[in-house]
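User: Show me a protein chain along with its predicted structure.
Assistant: Here is one chain, sequence first, then structure tokens.
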Amino acid sequence: MTRDDDREWPDPPGVGEDRSRDRGRLRFRLASSAVVAAVLVVVFWGYITGFLLEALWPPQEPLTRWATLVLLQVGGFLILPLLVGGLVGDALYDRLH
């Protein structure tokens, strides 16, 4: 099978740019991450003030179970907003600029 199509196709937008070093993009990512984190805190406020604070403090035995719960909460309330906020921030930045 031979390739008869020797046309040059343009690169998609954003290819070749150094997206990680753009300060405007970083600001959009951080701002949208903060908004996502604030929404999560508002939505889960009853859970945070009720069950979570009682479960996390004071540390309980076994400490491995307590540490696992802490890491899960950090993942849910810190890492998840950063991931989602980064994706939303990139989409907004690409649409607006």
